[in-house]
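[Automated response] Your request has been received and processed.

Submitted sequence:
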Amino acid sequence: MRKILQALSLLLFSLLFFFATYKLPDWLPADIYLRLDPLLGLNAVFAAREMIGRSLWALVTIGATLLIGRFFCAYACPMGVSIDFLDLLLFRKKNRKSLKTESGLREIKYYLLIVFIIAAVTGLSLAFLMDPIALLTRFYTFFIYPLAITLINLLLDLLRPISKAMGWVSLSHLHYFQPVFYMSAITLLIFGGIIALNLIAPRFWCRYLCPLGALLSLISPLGIFKRKVSPECNECMKCQKSCPMGAIPEDPKTTRLRECFQCRTCVQVCPQNAIAFPVSFPIGGEYSKIDVSRRGFLYSLAGGLGVGFLATQTPFTPLQSKHKLIRAPGAIPETEFLRTCIRCGECMKSCLTNTLQPCLWESGLSGLWTPKMDLRLAPCDQNCNVCGKVCPTQAIRSVSIEEKNHAKVGTAILRKEMCLVWAQDKICLICDEICPYNAIVFRPVEGYRRPVVIASKCNGCGFCEQRCPVLGESAIVVVPDGEIRLREGSYIKEAKKLQLEFKAAPGDDKFILEDSGFKIESGKKEEKKPQPQKPKGFL
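Generated structure:
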């Protein structure tokens, strides 16, 4: 039964992940696993210093753990399922000896939990570094998803000749957009390291390092289901050897209640049928001591406070003003965004154009793994608002398409020294033609027609930057000047207040491009000639 439930949980997690696209219906919570994660919820609430509606879903996990016990790690956690599956696949025949210093290792996850919670209280979000749901979501986003698209496209290429021969036109031309992400190799190394730790002990990550497991273990002994051993036990120790969490000490009749996640493996291997998990009343019963020393607790407390302070004093802090990051439309103000974002990667995966990419040090230590828009790589599609739908903490607000298009992320500026028109007098109208809001027009400047940006019409979508034909860095770039980032309220009302208008206005250009190029002859009036008309927008 446990294996079936694990498989169903991982399948559901994977399906919800792949359903997180621009076609995601409003009623489908594709980020439900992240919402159910109490560590991420507490981290976001403490760091943001306010209640977050979607984080309240974590109360379901906490309540179920209080009632049943630490079942989530054994049956529902997709990271735990992945570890079990890959352990069975890769290390089934490995002879792993028990660790002599196990008690000291078990303390690590509690120390990490203390560090993350205290850092969150200071305003620094760190839980994403080791939370299992966030880690697995990032692994799916940066590695599994691109790999799956690659394999699907390869299969379609192999089937293309057959599709054409059979007259299957749609299939013969089908090709899925290939996403690419920065830091994919780092993500693979982190996940590979977690799996490789199983060489030392089964579920090494869950036993000694997982802070979510530490949080759930604090309340799991209060559950009504507990391991009981009858007098028929002959102390064969098979239960101890088979326990994936090492929850059975030298005396097989006792149990480390905090470590037991009720997998029932001991029940299956017991030759005497001496082990059971009956309902135990009153709720609570025995409550085992936490394996944390006073010195370790104080060190962890100081570590959380120190990291929270140093996050604003590190050598990377000056980079926060050096790099002008463009956040997704609907992102809340930067300080609150850094506190609330859990770096799960859901928004990056669901991004229709692949413009959302993870930060490294561009926003300092506190901005690690947060999403930024790389508009040279891809623009922001104006008909997509899925990034807000899948954000479990609403660091990116879930808003309508119209509201999203009024959430100005920045303003395009022209680098005249790089622009083909400004610097070389060449004919180029790509940025003007591609702009969906006609925010780029040509105007006479010192006798020449030059492209200029109307800031009040630009919402920073980045089509101009992505399509600029200049090699390397674009001659027109979007900077966060004039961005609108609201914690609450209407972007439409704010845009009207600032006298911004994000609507196409055809016919704003005043000149038609003539054969003479961009130069305007002084004193000569422009006349319409009976020649083929230039494309609309040429000046």
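Summary generated for your ticket: The domain at 226-278 is CATH 3.30.70.20 (Alpha-Beta Plaits). The chain has 24 helices and eight strands.
If you did not submit this request, please reply to this message.
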